[in-house]
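Quarterly update, task 2.4: N-carbamoyl-L-aspartate-bound model.
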Amino acid sequence: MSRLSVRHLTGIAPLSDADIHALLERARALKAARGNPASFADRLKGKIILNVFYEDSTRTRNSFEIAAKRLGAEVVTWDKGTSSAKKGETFADTILNLNAMGPDAIVLRHSEYGAPEFVAKRVACPVINAGDSWREHPTQALLDALTILEAKGRLEGVTVAICGDVSHSRVAGSNMLLLPRLGVKVRIVAPPSLMPQTLPGPGVERFTSLEEGLRAADIVMMLRIQKERMEASEVPSDDAYFTQYGLTPARLALAAPDAFVMHPGPMNRGVEIADEVADDPQRSLILKQVENGVFVRMAAMDLLLGS
Ligand code: NCD
């Protein structure tokens, strides 16, 4: 039985404020209990989580798998490369067949807009969105919020500049919905060609100049150029992009003196971010984000499936 107001985690949009707080609180509690893994090791004992990833993933897939196993669940990974998708089976048929095997939850990554809702309508178990198209990646936004909260000690009034290819980024999509609801001042900073025409929610300021968008920001969140979601003619050259939009130490100096740097990964070093910034142990939260991802995903599975 879900302890959230929703049965599925398809995006930030359907979550209530109470759901968001419950997820962040549960993630913090699980992290605080990490030294005593026996305290949560049986939460999902006997459950089987099915990972269905139609797109490549390093962080998200392994993070969900580790999170599930930390809670005592077993994980089955559907592999696109060796599946019957290659033999012409439709997505709907694949989903109906996987559902017939009775998994306790499906973690889905898919390139189609709204794929998690499509699946949620057809299966008997909770569906967790691990990223769909350029729309939503809710657990990423939640782990970003947790990381900002830990780094700054608060969310209310913190200024976050989300910079780069905003228009193709589901990470930006979910963060633009989540962070303003937590009192964060969100700026999106993108060249005109990578700036979304419409924003998913209110409370977001736009900048096309990186220098202006970075000014006095507390958190600088860099995004990868999602070349796989662009026409070849739209893809800027790596060097030209770095010159205009790459985060260098000099540009980071425009942000608040104690600003932190975030990136959802995978990073393209020398394209959107310089090595010195990515690897700066004082400023970079990039591996903290990955660490927190496990606790956020544990929280999501625990609240959706745990007793
Ligand atoms: C992102 C994704 O796949 O949405 N990565 C992630 O999940 N941490 C961002 C990206 O692909 O650039």
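Highlight for this quarter: Residues 286-305 form the longest helix (20 residues).
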